[in-house]
Amino acid sequence: MIEKENMVVQIKEKINSLIEEFRQYPNKYLTEEDVRCNLIIRLAEIPGLNELQDTHDNSKSTPIHTEVR
Fold first, then answer.
1. What are the φ/ψ torsions at residue 61 (nearest 5 degrees)?
2. Which of 12, 29, 55, 68 has a beta carbon 3.0–4.6 Å from 34's, enabling a disulfide?
3. What total of structural domains would you count in the chain?
4. CB 37 within 8 A of CB 64
5. Residue 19 in domain
């Protein structure tokens, strides 16, 4: 797993790339959900964010979620 500071930098880069793409092609994203899905795809490319991890209830999950319960 990559170090936390490096992961934060990569997350910021993915967000900024999405913002830049939105500025260039605003009609590519018709809904807020389109933007959210595209962001999740980008974040899943970061090592460590798409890997199964142990949860507090002895289950497995990834750190990426579109909503938090």
1. -160, 170
2. 29
3. 1
4. no
5. yes
